[in-house]
Design a protein that fits this description.
single chain; about 325 residues; alpha+beta; Immunoglobulin-like; Cytochrome Bc1 Complex, Chain D, domain 2; 2 domains; 5-stranded mixed sheet; about 30% helix; elongated; binds copper (II) ion
């Protein structure tokens, strides 16, 4: 809209125009009414100025109801337009399309770490293909941060201890700023990075050219490795639900809990099941799972979640896992 403007960031995602249209509607409305009020004020100031020292004001009569309805009705309609328009933009911004590619973002004093779907990692740099919806699942390794890309009109808090999500679809090849939008300590202002939006074939070439891990990556054990090395396998087995629930197909399913509630097994639930297993006990099981709180980094927890996400139910079609499971059969504990 304003190319190279120092005050207005470029529009580089499908959300940019929608946010800007609403922003300019509200800004325009505010300017219009500010000017109108000042103009009428000055006009009346002059028109009804006191001409004689003994002149006094007149009480307004008649049309009072009509006047009240008008100056209540017009702002009401305008604010409702802002509300529904804003809600529409907000829902569009907060609901990633089903086919979005899954990326992970970690905030840490004072850097941004990114993990690509194939496991490639980078720091303070984020390469993405243009025209592809990208879903971010984000968490912090310390304090509250906020992942912000002004050119995409994207901004989402990144919190320790849980996952927040955001998504975007870049529309213009180029380089754009990443900022931390939440004051997070002395080097907050250096918590910046660059998003590189590339043509899909350039992105594929970049991915292929980086080796198994990005230049600034470092390695993290895969979920499958952790599942064995942290001894999850001693209880969670694909063939027996005797000691612990079968995790094949659990992701996205409805889990019946002790006490009668059900929860949908999303990322936050799996995370809590690993770090704070006592918080929600699966119906039909004993609370014997130890906590892995101080034994796993945030990145390792994500690796385990990714691994559990990919565990498909044995034999059964993947979709059938969403049926609410009955209390799992526990040999010996049920007659
Ligand atoms: Cu920060």
């Amino acid at each position: 809209m304003f190319p190279n403007s120092p005050v207005f960031p470029p529009q580089a995602s499908t959300l940019s125009h929608k946010v800007d249209a609403l922003f300019f509607f509200m800004l325009g409305g505010a300017i219009f009414f500010s000017l109108l009020i000042v103009a009428v004020l000055v006009f009346f100031l002059v028109k009804y100025r006191r001409r004689h020292p003994d002149e006094s004001g007149r009480v307004l009569t008649g049309h009072a109801t009509l006047l009240e309805i008008t100056w209540t009705g017009i702002p009401f309609v305008l604010l409702m337009v802002c509300f529904f328009w804003g809600a529409h933009v907000f829902f569009g911004a907060s609901r990633p399309p089903a086919d979005a590619a899954q990326y992970y973002v970690y905030g840490k004093q004072w850097m941004w770490k990114v993990e690509h779907p194939d496991g490639k990692r980078e720091i303070n740099a984020f390469h993405v293909p243009v025209g592809v919806p990208i879903k971010l699942t984000m968490t912090s390794e310390d304090v509250i941060h906020d992942f912000a890309v002004p050119a995409f009109r994207l901004k989402m808090d990144v919190l320790p201890g849980r996952y927040t999500t955001a998504w975007f679809k870049a529309t213009a090849v180029g380089q754009y700023h990443i900022f931390c939008d939440q004051y997070c300590g002395v080097e907050h202002s250096k918590m910046v990075g660059t998003i590189y939006v590339m043509e899909p074939q350039d992105y594929r070439a970049w991915v292929a050219g980086q080796g198994a891990f990005g230049p600034a990556g470092g390695t993290v054990a895969s979920g499958a490795e952790l599942f064995v090395s942290k001894a999850c396998t001693t209880c969670h087995r694909p063939d027996s639900s005797a000691r612990a629930p079968i995790l094949q197909g659990v992701f996205g399913s409805k889990v019946a809990l002790l006490g009668g509630q059900t929860v949908t097994a999303d990322e936050n639930y799996i995370r809590e099941s690993i770090l704070n297993p006592q918080a929600k006990i699966v119906q039909g099981y004993q609370p014997i799972m130890p906590t892995f709180k101080d034994q796993l980094s945030e990145e390792e927890v994500i690796q385990l979640i990714k691994y559990i996400k990919d565990l498909k139910p044995e034999g059964a079609a993947a979709g059938s896992a969403t049926a609410a499971p009955e209390a799992p059969a526990v040999p010996g504990s049920k007659s």
